[in-house]
Amino acid sequence: MSKIIVKGPVKLKGEVQISGSKNAALPILIGTVLVEGESIITNVPNLTDIVTTIRLLRSLGLKADFANNTVKVWGSNDIRHVAPYELITNMRASFLVAGPILARVGFAKVPYPGGCSIGSRPVDIHLKGFEAFGVDIRVEHGFVILKAKHKIKGTKFALDFPSVGATENLMMFASLAEGTTVLKNVAREPEIVDLADFLNAAGADVSGAGSDVITIHGVPKLQTVKHSVIPDRIEAATFICAAGITNSDIIISHIKLEHIQDIVKIVKKIGLNIEIIDKTAIRVMPGDKEYKPVNLKTEPYPGFSTDMQALIMSFLVMVNGKSIITENIFENRFMHVMELNRMGANIEVDGNKAIVHGVNKLSSTTVKMPDLRGGAALLIAALAAEGETTLYNIHHIMRGYESIKEKMQALGVEIA
Ligand code: EPZ
């Protein structure tokens, strides 16, 4: 099992540059399937999930190069309609290929994506949306088989829940449909807006992204496009919480300030000092009063992001008093709790609520990363724990954090 060893407690110092957003880059790269011509995507983070996505594009018959955080994709004129099993099942976001393949070829065969550690993660909203367009759907031998019986026409569809993935899949699919599509109760995350910006840069006509209604006027084709991916707001939140738990004074740059308002509001409520340098950088400093516990509920954007839940929990484990964190988005996203408690935290789980009782210190031990953000939470806690903490299963954080070891070392962390 791949591992890292972190020596704590440590005070971070200096500046960290945030990479491009994984959750924006993945749908945008998959969206290149829609583009006849060349797509140049910049500010793409170098992550295992990105490499998987590029392998997926190549398996569909496209050509793709990835160097210096830039992905070039071309050759989409002869797309295979079957997505490979092993790539879809080891990265759920791959199910997003269904919409683009269907829009280009009229037929798609995509393995049913498995759940993962944080929940069953069904795709029923995606499939209901495709059916609203008149797409014929069958599930056979673990594959979802989608067939457009006729030329796809725009439609109206309201999502049962503002699913990020379903919003992305249906928005991409509708971009090449004839006529107008109105999607209601859609996800409003910044990554949805970035995907819409990419589609429009390629000649699509998508409006309303970021609100709960997206209108798409279909166009005959999407053409050569150049697009830069937005900064990763979850990575920024990770370093804010790392600074918080270690009482550090650091600069976090290459961010988009408007995308981190939720986490900034919460850490200021706890007691951190945040100085806004400009729209692309903040300075995080220790507060001058005792930190206060907070109660939080994860909600669809612009509510508090589920991806930040484990990160803020780590910061709160050493804040005196009782904080209550309610996870409303995924049914099993507290697997980091057990490992944090093994480091000396005092957290109880009651259904979808985690009650965090502040402790004065954490002690080093050996822990296993349970998933991407839970792993990041354990890394944050290890920075404050006394002694050397060994963290196993670091492949989880390699999926979502570019050069995380080097970034931590540059901030003064002894990490090997
Ligand atoms: C995206 O996942 C993100 N992944 C997740 O980030 C993020 O946690 C999630 O959105 C919520 O913000 C990427 O963007 C690649 P959803 P996605 O569809 O699209 C249920 C990370 O850490 N649901 O909004 O899969 C689902 O089970 C990852 O970077 C249905 O019931 O999330 C879940 O409970 C983890 N039916 C809730 O909705 C459906 O058809 C939110 O799922 C689809 C979803």
Ligand names: ligand EPZ
Going across the major beta sheet, what is the strand order? 21-22-1-23
The profile of the biggest β sheet is: 4 strands, mixed
Q: List unreliable stretches of 5+ residues.
A: none
> Level of helix content?
25-40%
- How many domains, as an integer? 2
Helix count, per DSSP? 14
Shape designation: elongated
Measure the end-to-end span: 15 Å
* Total number of beta strands: 23
Mean pLDDT rating: 95
Q: Please identify the structural class as seen in this structure.
A: alpha+beta
Beta-strand content: 25-35%
CATH architecture of the largest domain: Alpha-beta prism
CATH class of the largest domain: Alpha Beta
Can you tell me the CATH superfamily of the largest domain? Enolpyruvate transferase domain
What attributes does this structure have?
single chain; 416 residues; alpha+beta; UDP-n-acetylglucosamine1-carboxyvinyl-transferase, Chain; 4-stranded mixed sheet; binds ligand EPZ
Could you walk me through the main structural features you see in this protein, from its secondary elements to its overall organization?
The chain is α+β, with helices and mostly antiparallel strands. It has two domains: 3-19 and 231-415, Enolpyruvate transferase domain (UDP-n-acetylglucosamine1-carboxyvinyl-transferase, Chain), CATH 3.65.10.10; 22-228, Enolpyruvate transferase domain (UDP-n-acetylglucosamine1-carboxyvinyl-transferase, Chain), CATH 3.65.10.10. 31% of the residues lie in helices and 27% in strands. The chain contains 14 helices and 23 strands. The strands form six sheets. Strands 21-22-1-23 form a four-stranded mixed beta sheet. Strands 2-14-16-15 form a four-stranded mixed beta sheet. Strand 17, helix 10 and strand 18 form a beta-alpha-beta unit. It is elongated. The model has no long low-confidence stretch (mean pLDDT 95). The structure holds ligand EPZ.
